[in-house]
Structure formats: C-alpha cells, structure tokens
Amino acid sequence: MYDEMAQVVENRPLAGRHFLLSLYSPKQARAVRPGQFAMIRLPGRSDVILRRPMSIYDVRSRDLKGGYGLERHGQRPAVLQVLYKVVGRGTRLMAELTPGDRLAVLAPLGHGFFPEEYLAQARDASEVLLVAGGIGIAALLMPARDLARQKIPQRLFFGGRSRHDLVGLSDFKPLVEAITLATEDGSRGYRGYVTAPLAQYLEQRCERRFLILACGPMAMLQVTAGLAERYNHPCLVSMENRMGCALGVCLGCSIRVQGEGHAAYERVCTEGPVFWSNHIVWDP
Ligand SMILES: Cc1cc2nc3c(=O)[nH]c(=O)nc-3n(C[C@H](O)[C@H](O)[C@H](O)COP(=O)(O)OP(=O)(O)OC[C@H]3O[C@@H](n4cnc5c(N)ncnc54)[C@H](O)[C@@H]3O)c2cc1C
Ligand code: FES
Prior knowledge:
By secondary structure, the protein is an alpha/beta fold. The chain contains 7 helices and 16 strands. A hairpin with a 4-residue loop joins β1 and β2 (18-24). The chain binds flavin-adenine dinucleotide and FE2/S2 (inorganic) cluster. Flavin-adenine dinucleotide (FAD) binds next to β4, β6 and α2.
C-alpha cells in the first residue's frame, strides 16, 4: 500500500452523474489486484476531512490507450482509474477536478478477489456470473479482464435505477459472452431488479455449476447470496460499507461473519472488501 499524491490526467463525465477519473500514480497502478480499492482525499478541503473509498476500476498506461493487453504491448500500468457517481459532498468536489489537480491517494487497499481461490473456482465452473448493481460495476472490470485472459466464459447481469446508471458497458462487452440488463424504471432491459433475471437464469440451468462475483447495494448482495446458496454455487461479494480509517483501526466497517462470540466480526477494509457470501451473517 502506498500513500501518494496522484495527478489527475482526466475526469471524464459520463451519463447520469457518473465520472471516470484517471490518476497518474505508477507505483499504485502496478501494485493493484482485482477487487482492491483506494482511499481518496481532496487536499486543502478541510470541509471534507475523511477520505472516500473507491474501487479501482482499471489500470492503464500513461496514454490511456493501454488497459486490456497492456502486458502484450510491453507497457506497464501507470494510471489508476476510478468510476464514481456523485452522491454527496465529497463526490461533488471530485466532479470539479481538472487535469493537473493533485489528490492524496492511499492504495491499493483490501485483499481483493482472492486471486488463486477465485481463479481455481472459475476454472471448475461452466461460466462465471458477474452481478452488478449501480456503481458496484466498478469493482468487476478488473476480475472480468483476469477471467477473459484465462479464457473463462462469463456473463454480466447489470442493474440500475434507470438506463443512466448502466455505465461502463463498452468496457465489459469485449470480455463477456453476454450481458443482461435490468432497470427499475424499465428504461433499458428487464424492468425490475437485476436479481430477477439472475434467478431465472439459475433456475433454468440448475444442473450447471457457476461462480458468482457480485458488487452492489446490500439488499442486492443479500438476494444474490441467497440465490447462490439455494442453487449451491460459490459466490464472492464485494462489500461497500461506509468507512472511516480503511486501515483496520476504527472498526467502523465491521460486519458479522460466521463464527462464535465477539471474534465473529471482520473488517471490510482489511479482511474484505471481498468475502465468500456464505461467510457473512446477512441478518445479524
Ligand atoms: C470498498 C468501497 C468501494 C467503493 N467503490 C466505489 C466506486 O468505485 N465508485 C463510487 O462511486 N462509489 C464507491 N463507493 C461508495 C463511495 O465511497 C461513496 O459513495 C462516497 O464515499 C460518498 O461520498 P460523498 O461525500 O460524496 O457522500 P456523503 O455526503 O458522505 O454521502 C451522500 C450519500 O451517499 C451515501 N453513502 C455514502 N457512502 C456510502 C457507501 N459506502 N455505500 C452506500 N451509500 C453511501 C450516504 O448514506 C448518503 O446518503 C465505495 C465504497 C466502498 C466502501
Ligand atoms: S474503516 Fe476503520 S477499521 Fe475499517
């Protein structure tokens, strides 16, 4: 983990109050594994004291043309990308960033998607199902690239409130075999929650074995974990609890996990943010 002052290369507005922020930070970009996150602080803004946790969406070469196949072209990652949605004061200020601005970035944090374990499970599965709700999509691009490199088939289930929440699709299209979309207002894809077409897919293929990787709102993760249990598929969830220190000190991000007594809590920032879904106590 490195504590760096990273320079903004680009802060590109996307649909529906979403932005793709690119930060020049070579040491951090080279160290990132799928599922890890960064803590971002706006220096000089005493009104926004806490750092904001953000998944690392992607890593790119300095000219931003790298990404998938970086290694093949002999380039090394130098830029961290963060896909974020403006929801409050901190993210509103992030939206005002322009190239050349500098941010305090602590990254990479968390252990991510357990690289060996999830790749081994993925190889045993007939398909990996990526399940994203809203900005949860940001945690899934790096594992999707990893799986695509290993030629493991994958399918994306992606839901949002409206079509404006369905950002990043063009990044996923070359990596996955199929994409199922859902919106609560019916403006794109299936009308309703994304867990409905997911349930249908699992029900119709109950003889097959899938690995599920999910990130999104707590309710979506809980339903996805329930479906994984019902159909007996391994499932990893990336949790987005509110965080204070992100260093394992304040305990503000603790969640209940299977086990006995007081020890049955784990910190999302250090033991997570990714957990096997059956390790979490969903109704503590
Ligand atoms: C590990 C992790 C990874 C994350 N990755 C991303 C990402 O890639 N892109 C992204 O846009 N966001 C991500 N988030 C959520 C992001 O950290 C919050 O949206 C952000 O901190 C809000 O800051 P703010 O000052 O704009 O909002 P605030 O003023 O702090 O809050 C505004 C509103 O957002 C809600 N909110 C704040 N934090 C969270 C949260 N963690 N989960 C749900 N609701 C929240 C508040 O309850 C409030 O309603 C991640 C969170 C975690 C813990
Ligand atoms: S945020 Fe402080 S312990 Fe996790």
